[in-house]
Amino acid sequence: MVDRGAFDVSSASGRTLLFSIPGRERKETGKMSGRRAALKAVDWLAFAERVPPNQRAMFNGLKTRSDAIAARLRSLPETPAPIDWSYYKSAVANLALVEEFEKKFTALQIPEPVDTQTSKIDTQEQEANKSAVAYVEASKIRIAQYEKELEKLKNMIPFDQMTIEDLNETFPETKLDKEKYPYWPHKPIADL
Questions:
Q1: Beta partners for 7?
Q2: Beta carbons of 63 and 44 less than 8 angstroms apart
Q3: Is-contact 9 18, C-beta < 8 A?
Q4: How far apart are CA 38 and CA 19, in angstroms?
Q5: Which of 74, 116, 165, 171 is the most buried if burial means most Cβ atoms within 10 Å?
Q6: Per the record's keyword annotation, is Mitochondrion included, yes or no (predicted)?
Q7: Cα separation of 85 and 96, whole Å?
């Protein structure tokens, strides 16, 4: 069994470990039941810090349901109580039936469910990472454009000292086309 790792999220208060992420493999340090691991998988304080105020009620409902399920899991024993076959052999008249049940019970192997969702989640995570990288790159381009425009605004003549010619030179989109539209407002009527 491989420990699947964790998504490490640091908050302003220094808390980490918001939730587990499949695909982050580490060496196995010890065997822990899935039930006990599930109880420790969510740092609710770090999670609550990231919940917007308009979604607080949904978050509280999720936390309540999760706490109820966790309490039910904690109330159950780690392993089921063993069956006392000797008692049943002495109490049941048909000994062959008890021995058949015991043989079938000991031969019973319940397989672990096959994980069909981790690969889909990993694919979605990779797509989200690619999308995030593309968004960051596009944002850097927009930031450069905005910084260039900001520099232009910082270096221009103050508005109270500008003439119409200065305004049209600084902001070409404000220039009226008197040749194409000789009558006032010197713009197409549709643009008004």
A1: 19
A2: yes
A3: yes
A4: 10
A5: 171
A6: yes
A7: 12
